[in-house]
Amino acid sequence: MFFCFFTIVYAQHHIGKTYENLEFNGSYIIYKDVKIELGPKAFFIDGELSNEEVSKYKYVYNSIVEASKYLTQGTESSPMVLYIAPWVYWIDNPDDPEIRMPDRVGGSPIGLEISCEWLKFQGLSEHPENVILASNRGQTMGSKGNFTMFRINGDGICSENITFGNYCNIDLVYPLNPELNREKRGSAIVQAQLIFSNGDKVVARNSHFISRLNLGPFWGSKRTLFDSCHFEMTDDALNGSAVYLNCTFDFYSSKPFYRTDGTGSVFLNCDIQAYTRGNQYFEKANGPVTVIDTRFSAKDLSYIGWRDIPDKEARYYQYNVSLNNNPIDIGENDAFATVDMTDKNILNAYRFEHDNKVVYNTYNLLRGNDDWDPMGVKCIVEKVENESGKNYSNIPTQLIVKPTQQTLETGKDSLLLETIVNRFGNFEIKNENVYWDIASEYKSLVALKPQENGACLVMPTNNNNETKEVVIRAFTDSGLETASVLYIAPSFIDPPAFKKFPKISKAKDGKLQVVYDLDMTFEDKSLISWYRCHDDQGNHPIEIAVSRFSKPMKTYQLSAGDIGYYIMARVSPKHIRCDAGSPQSTVFKKVISAKDIMNQSHVLIPNLENMSGKYQPEICLGFWSLDSYAPSDTQEYNWEADNSRDPWYYGEGINGAAGTKGFVQNTKGARLRYTPVGDVFGDMKISFTAIPSKTAGQGFSSARAQYLDIGIKMDIKNMNGYALRLIRTTKYSDATDFVIMKYENGNATPISESVSASCFRPNCKIIVEVKNNKLIVHAENTNEYFSAHENDEVVKVVDMQAEITPNKFGGLSFQHTGTVRSGATLIKDLKIEWL
To answer: Which InterPro entries match (predicted)?
Structure first.
């Protein structure tokens, strides 16, 4: 049979570029003088070939997507290889206007799913930026959900000389052929992911992983090695169970890991360029991280830590880390969490020196139970073992103690602390020696009795009155550490009896007080809740105020909302040495009238510390209504309000709101509304301080209709009135839009142009006012902060207004449609004025 060979030598293309060392001859390619026969497990892919050209040859394609349809299952000794010529290969068509949808309930939109064992992406260039596998969709930008370029199922996935890039928020620049350049979809940083993987033995060599938020390089893979790779990302981005060897990183925000899993992630001989200002951390949640021979470079960093507030039981490991060529200890502010491996045997698990050279012990880290050795260092490790008589190939890297936190009562409880010792990759080692100790100040509070198999029995011995925190440390001969944080209570006694049952009486200045007497000598820490009731029997009680932080709320300030109701107090007796006892209720026998109210009815400064955060949907004059609600303009994102738990809580926030107390959303869709007493209201003013958990000015977790509406001049029952909306959009990742809305029967429409502002970050002072038929907004931040915007498109101070139609309403509302915790906003210093 006669074959006509189509030969391309990649040296003189029409674009005037040179692809060196690559020749295509129909049935084989020659790369770097090596002949590679094409076949069922060896495809050649070149995007510059036309459809007509590739149709002439078996195993030749111009598209990754098309080639993926014909893959053959590989093996460890005979992988399936895609030999990919320099080009930009779109895994998802960037010109298709259709919005990508999740492929399963709760899932992410996927560009291409591949199921293939031992599949290798082999770029035919030493420069990975020449071989790009690309997409450009992300959350709210071309997709509904966190768009992910690949889902790859199978063990043994490998990439070499490849760039995986999601160019949703960054420009694709391709110098080999500028015609293939493409501008980003938008500047706002959204979740734009690369690869989901469920396989073991995953390797990337000389590969680039480019995106911003939620980078996702082989997320979900088990044993994973990144060798000489480059990463660009913002938060929640890196693979949390991988070894990063000789890699480079561009950190564009402060938390590249959301969390790490199992035995965590390891940095060996890496270079990190941090573009973060202020504080740089490794992770947002928790999990192990180890950093060795790693160099940070930065202009504006003031601190490098593991996470903003590490758990007291957490331990992280480091050796030879520098910032701008100066040695540093990561997490100096939380020194308990850092284990410096200098002169500790644990360092040999990661690196050692042999023949005056540093050897990174990837064999120990990745060998598992099947002797995997992707870097080929096993022979060196075994040689050093034979010469030294020491263990270098079976060294554990993680010590776990369970439980990590628990409360124990003296004279009643005991606790067996158990340990697990793991090699990297979550392979357990038995019979390791584990030791236990506590600081001297804790020794009177617990007795430790070490057991077999590394366990320890803890016996509480607290003879004080207060519950004490005790940190119990576990460690091994090699230098592994961990801890358990226990709360050691004295022996509890029965709750005190009432010598005098609770009774409500009038106090000064328009207050009620509950008086009772307990049979005890301890400080009173009783739990007291206040209710409005329909009658003097306490029927239909609605909780309006509560004790918090062990401070009994013995007085209650009457307000106009109490008029016409009976007030009940419920007291659960408690002191420091007991749990709360059975509550006793008492009702003030007179209905509250207008003459009982002393405070100004035109000014309300709610006592947020004692305000109830319970679900309370009733709309009544003078009541706060609390619930979770999913507005109609958010329904395209397919979520439902959850009213099975309290929608709000008073307490400390997290991240940007850490260290501050206020009212915080506890469920997505949390809504807080107040209906004032009266029929007709004129001008009105609301002022408060907003402290978002987000610190970069984006305010919310994503641009999926996540906003905070501050309603003013509202008819709460029918939700008519006006509001200031703060919303995250796809325009910016470090600014929110302020827009004035009109509410009509619960549906909100904008009545002003939006103003993009960077000030919605801790601490943002916001004033919303209706005056002379205008809604006026002022917002600014009281802290100094950096903003990358130097033009009028994004302002630091918001001053805006809109003409409104007068109404007689006087209600106010807060509606938060964002996620909670890291996406929540803490509210404090709230003041409402009816002018």
So the answer is: Pectin_lyas_fold
pTM of the model: 0.88
Q: Which amino acid, one-letter code, is at 206?
A: N
Q: How many CB atoms lie within 10 A of CB 624?
A: 18
**Counting beta carbons within 10 angstroms of the beta carbon of residue 119, is it exposed (0 to 12), middle (13 to 18) or buried (19 or more)?**
buried
CA 747/CA 754 separation, integer angstroms = 18
317's tokens: 């490991």
Tokens 């199922």 -> residue:
153
Q: How many CB atoms lie within 10 A of CB 175?
A: 10
Q: How far apart are CA 270 and CA 274, in angstroms?
A: 13
Each residue's pLDDT tens digit, 458-488: 999 999 999 999 999 999 999 999 999 999 9
User: CA-to-CA distance for 306 and 310, rounded, in angstroms?
Assistant: 7
3-state secondary structure of 88: strand
Bridge-based pairing of strands 542-546 and 555-557 is unpaired
Between CA 666 and CA 662 the distance in angstroms is: 12
Structure tokens at 335: 């020194």
Domains in the chain, start-ordered, CATH in brackets? 343-395 (no CATH), 398-489 (2.60.40.10), 498-596 (2.60.40.2700), 603-834 (2.60.120.560)
Question: Which residues, including other chains, have CB under 8 Å from residue 125's CB and lie 6 or more apart?
Answer: 19, 22, 86, 131, 161
CB-based contact 531:618 (threshold 8 Å): no
φ, ψ (nearest 5 deg) of residue 770: -110, 120
- Three-state DSSP string of 324-381: CCEECCCCHHHHHHEEECCCCHHHHHCEEEECCEEEECHHHHHCCCCCCCCCCCHHHH
CB 812 within 8 A of CB 832: yes
Q: Six-digit token pair at 229?
A: 């790779």
Do the beta carbons of residue 133 and residue 163 sit within 8 Å? yes
Helices (H), 19-146: 51-54, 64-67
